[in-house]
Design brief:
The chain has 545 residues and is an alpha/beta fold. It folds into 3 domains: 30 residues; 142 residues, 2-Layer Sandwich (Chitobiase, domain 2), CATH 3.30.379.10; 342 residues, TIM Barrel (Alpha-Beta Barrel). Helices cover 34% and strands 16% of the residues. The strands form 2 sheets. The chain has an 8-stranded parallel beta barrel with strand order 8-9-10-11-12-13-14-15, surrounded by 6 helices. It has a 7-stranded mixed β-sheet with strand order 1-7-5-6-4-2-3, with helices on one face. The longest helix has 22 residues.
Length: 545
């Protein structure tokens, strides 16, 4: 551990110690759960996970049970046996996971698809949920009641006598169904190992969507068997070293491994193949389908066959049912100089090149729907009449009318504005980060994110129902290393998780900060390079960015 890391650890440890002392002086303790649950009822006493503890798993509870047992074994070295639920004999010392009604009729609670109830009594622990995802999130809350070292992969990080849980009853469900993080692997590539590490951390935050920006100008990062030059040529280099010589991409087997790992954590992986712009990597490989620069050639009938072939192979790898096709920033194209463009426009009754862009977007969205998937595009696409099943991802905060127009047209919307949820933007004043639009709001600090209300108060109940959820985006123009990647994500991901789970209304920032001190210890246990909050030196030369 270097001197800086040691100072970080000591500072966080001192703050936790002072928080514990406050509780010891009579202040009601605040269990450091992030995101904060809907309801927590505490009682006196504790439950110790010991040698006589086992896990009983009801039908379809096996995955959550295995996750819990593996996490406890990795941190403590102790293997807790898992038994199938034959009948609930009421035995003590058990951790029981089952699907069913999380509450009785006299205590109403609608868990939805991801809600749960966790009860820790003196004699046993019960987690109930209507669906497997809820059980998994109940397990995450259970783990956060244990010391932060429970997230370590070093056996012995926790002693058996430290597996002591407070007596609580927790009921919880998320506000939003879409709780996502996007990673741009085109501008700078990040390995499947780094993505799996990210998935592990997302699960701790109870997030459920990993969006992979797989293609852009610097590089094409996914294997397509029918068009091998997309990786032999299009995957060469990155934004820093465009000539390579490295070729960076995921094989089909890599993608399957990432998708399977995510599914075990109740996270779906959504691919993005950006088009018709942001496509220079593909244009280097197959120039016959492009405009001589970085934009697809919409006047060439073979272009559409190329698009269909690529998207079919992509859909075969991603069972999420969603496919993001970009549709943003179609600029600097050379369509006016393409042979046949005027004939194409006349045949379709177009008088402006923007109509050509709309033609292309409609084709892609309709094809994705035809194949049984749901298309997603950045908010640029709302300028056109597009398939009503298309989800619009609002990103440019200077254009709130695009979000509002999409909602009023009946589209579902994902909220991702630059001035709150772009994690490539600075964490604080004077810190490194992207200089693009959005910085007029100040740094995208975790404090700013935590206090933000993502849905306008002017929306009707019906309009608000079209907001699917929130997604943070990490663009990687300036992000080259795993360390900097993690520094820009954590702890801001905690703030995103909190507002994605919490009901609409005022949020207690001071309370969140107290819990965040402990969350940072969890980051230490997981081996994440997080940004420490509070006073911080202005010298960032140790970062490669």
């Amino acid at each position: 551990m270097n001197d800086r890391s040691l100072r970080i650890t000591c500072a966080v440890g001192a703050l936790i110690f002072s928080s514990v002392c406050l509780c010891a002086t009579g202040e009601e303790p605040e269990w450091p759960i992030i995101p904060k649950p809907l309801s927590v009822t505490r009682s006196a006493g504790s439950f110790l996970i010991g040698d006589n503890t086992d896990i009983i798993a009801g039908p379809n509870a096996g995955k959550a049970s295995s996750y819990l047992a593996q996490r406890l074994r990795k941190a403590s070295g102790y293997a807790i046996p898992i038994r199938e639920w034959e009948s609930d004999d009421g035995l003590s010392t058990r951790i029981a996971l089952r699907l069913g009604s999380p509450l009785t009729p006299d205590r109403p609670f609608d868990p939805g698809r991801e809600g749960y109830r966790l009860t820790v009594s003196r004699t046993r622990i019960d987690i109930t949920a209507a669906y497997p995802a809820g059980l998994f999130y109940g397990v995450q809350t259970l783990l956060q009641l244990l010391p932060p070292q429970v997230y370590s992969n070093n056996a012995g990080a926790l002693r058996m006598d430290e597996l002591l849980l407070p007596l609580v009853e927790v009921t919880d469900r998320p506000r939003f169904g879409w709780r996502g993080l996007m990673i741009d692997v085109s501008r700078h590539f990040f390995s499947k190992e780094q993505l799996k590490k990210t998935i592990d951390a997302m699960a701790v935050h109870k997030l459920n969507v990993l969006h992979l920006h797989l293609t852009d100008d610097p590089g094409w990062r996914i294997e397509i068997e029918k068009y091998p030059r997309l990786t032999t040529v299009g995957a060469i280099g990155d934004r820093t070293n465009p000539e390579g010589p490295e070729r960076w991409y995921f094989s089909k087997e890599d993608i399957r491994e990432i998708v399977e790992h995510a599914a075990r954590h109740h996270i779906m992986v959504v691919p993005e193949i950006d088009m018709p712009g942001h496509s220079m990597a593909a244009a280097r490989a197959y120039p016959q389908f492009f405009d001589g620069h970085r934009t697809f050639n919409p006047a060439n009938a073979e272009t559409y066959e190329f698009v269909k072939d690529v998207l079919v192979e992509v859909m075969e790898l991603f069972p999420s049912g969603y496919l993001h096709f970009g549709g943003d920033e179609v600029r600097d194209h050379r369509w006016a100089d393409i042979p046949g463009i005027r004939t194409f426009m006349e045949e379709n009754g177009y008088t402006d090149l923007k109509e050509v862009e709309g033609h292309f977007d409609r084709f892609v969205a309709d094809f994705i729907v035809e194949k049984g998937y749901t298309p997603i595009g950045w908010d640029d696409i709302v300028e056109f009449e597009i398939n009503p099943n298309t989800i619009v991802q609002w990103w440019l905060h200077l254009r709130p009318e695009a979000r509002d127009h999409a909602v009023r047209k009946g589209h579902r919307v994902i909220i991702s504005p630059t001035n709150y949820l772009y994690f490539d933007y600075p964490n604080g004043p004077g810190e490194p980060g992207a200089p693009w639009e959005g910085n007029d709001n100040g740094p995208n600090s975790f404090e700013l994110i935590h206090q933000w209300e993502p849905v306008p108060d002017t929306y009707s109940q019906e309009e608000e129902s079209r907001i699917m959820g929130l997604q943070a985006n990490l663009w990687t123009e300036f992000v080259k290393t795993n360390e900097y990647y993690e520094y820009m994500i954590f702890p801001r991901l905690s703030a995103l998780a909190e507002i994605a789970w919490s009901p609409k209304g005022a949020k207690d920032l001071d309370n969140f900060k107290k819990r965040l001190h402990v969350q940072c210890q969890r980051y230490e246990a997981m081996g994440l390079n997080y940004r420490v909050f509070g006073d911080w030196p202005s010298d960032f030369s140790y970062l490669t960015h």
